[in-house]
Amino acid sequence: MQVEIKIDSSYAEPKVIILTAAVTEDVNTVLNKLYENAPQIISGNRNEKIEGIERNDLIRAYAGNGKVFAVTDKGEYKLRFRLYELEECLDPNQFVRISNSEIVNLKKVKNFDLSITGTICVELANDTKTYVSRRYVSKIKKVLGI
Questions:
Q1: What is the pLDDT of residue 143?
Q2: What DSSP character marks residue 69?
Q3: What's the pLDDT at 103?
Q4: How far apart (Å, rounded) are the C-alpha atoms in residues 121 and 43?
Q5: DSSP conformation letters of 36-48
Q6: Helices (H), ranges, 38-136
Q7: Which residues pair with 54 in a beta bridge?
Q8: What is the pTM of this model?
Q9: How would residue 110 be classed by pLDDT, with cut points 50, 70 and 90?
Q10: Which residue from 112, 104, 113, 108 is spatially nearest to 125, judged by alpha carbons?
Q11: Lateral strand order in the sheet of 60-64
Q12: Contact 100, 107 (CB under 8 A)
């Protein structure tokens, strides 16, 4: 395995890029180490207070009106992340993007309804229904193994 570090003052925080022909045991080991050290709590603003949100409590995150929101069983929080930044710090085995403006926690999905032609309806643990955009349908079907 090769390791390369580039120092560039234009980056505010470190960025890790893994270039590989296939996901190997070594790649999985590196990913697991990175996720172990990542903070497990996300800060969200609700009722003029900053609260910690456990990643496992996150049901969905979505962008709307130029802001990013996180939904848990406790309610909705405004985040200081952009959606792509949040996606980068979430476990890709547990969280999946279903549209340009929404990420869902696969462990909080009640069911996927494929009866609607061309799209997929997602029912979440809090009884919210949302839809996979056409652009992401094939990705979701791959995640589901269909």
A1: 83
A2: E
A3: 96
A4: 29
A5: HHS-SEEEEEETT
A6: 83-89
A7: 41
A8: 0.70
A9: very high
A10: 108
A11: 49-54, 41-46, 75-79, 67-72, 60-64, 102-105, 95-99
A12: no
Q: Say how far apart CA 99 and CA 80 lie, in whole Å.
A: 20
Q: State how far the Cα of 121 lies from the Cα of 144, in Å rounded to an integer.
A: 14
Q: For residue 41, give both structure tokens.
A: 């709590």
φ/ψ (deg, to 5) at 27: -65, -45
Fill in the DSSP letter of residue 106: G
Cα atoms in the 13 Å half-sphere on the side-chain side of 49: 5
Three-class SS string for the chain? CCCCCCCCCCCCCCCCCCCCCCCCHHHHHHHHHHHHHCCCEEEEEECCEEEEEEHHHCCEEEEECCEEEEEECCEEEEECCCHHHHHHHCCCCCEEEEECCEEEEHHHEEEEECCCCCCEEEEECCCCEEEECHHHHHHHHHHHCC
